[in-house]
Automatic annotation (TrEMBL):
Protein origin, superkingdom: Archaea
SUPFAM superfamilies on file: Thioesterase/thiol ester dehydrase-isomerase (SSF54637)
InterPro entries given in the database record: HotDog_dom_sf, MaoC-like_dom, MCH/BMMD
Lineage summary: Archaea, Methanobacteriati, Methanobacteriota, Stenosarchaea group, Halobacteria
Descriptive protein name: MaoC/PaaZ C-terminal domain-containing protein
Domain MaoC-like: from-to ranges: 22-121
Species the sequence originates in: Halomarina rubra
């Protein structure tokens, strides 16, 4: 079920606030495009015959691809549209289970930190715990993402 949220500013973010993404099914094209973009043609991801006899019985996505899909699911919530200046990194990221062609991924995002910046008055740092699950409710990625988030008050936009 797709969810739609309005853009959120730094002032809107508070610890415990959660968002749920729409779902997205992983395709053969996703695998090929990721390999083309990154140059990672490891056979576990790109060779069906090799992978069928491998440890997972099929091709699996590259770990970075799973993370990139998570960032796309976050963007699709709409809360970061024109309100996030930068992705600042992660404190941790765990790839809990493999992702296969045909898996449908959905994510839950929770604000776990809101911090003022002494170096800027137009933005603060927001930490988002991220949990991505497949259609069988198996967690495939857990991690946090840190963003520099725009302040509404600095840009003179009214609070609604």
């Amino acid at each position: 079920m797709p969810y739609s949220y309005e853009p959120h500013y730094f002032e809107d973010m508070e610890e415990g606030l959660t968002f749920e993404s729409a779902g997205r099914t992983i395709t053969e094209s996703d695998f090929v495009m990721h390999s083309m973009f990154t140059g990672d043609w490891t056979e576990l991801h790109t060779n069906k015959e090799y992978s069928d006899d491998g440890p997972y019985g099929a091709r699996i996505s590259q770990g970075p691809m799973t993370f990139i899909v998570a960032t796309g699911l976050f963007q699709r919530t709409g809360i970061v549209e024109r309100t996030v200046f930068a992705f600042l990194g992660m404190n941790y990221m765990d790839l809990k289970n493999p992702v296969f062609i045909g898996d449908t991924l959905q994510a839950t995002f929770e604000c776990t930190g809101v911090k003022e910046l002494s170096s800027r008055d137009d933005a603060g740092v927001v930490t988002i715990d991220t949990h991505v699950h497949n259609q069988d409710d198996e967690e495939v990625l857990a991690g946090d993402m840190k963003f520099m988030w725009r302040k509404r008050s600095h840009y003179g936009e009214s609070e609604e």
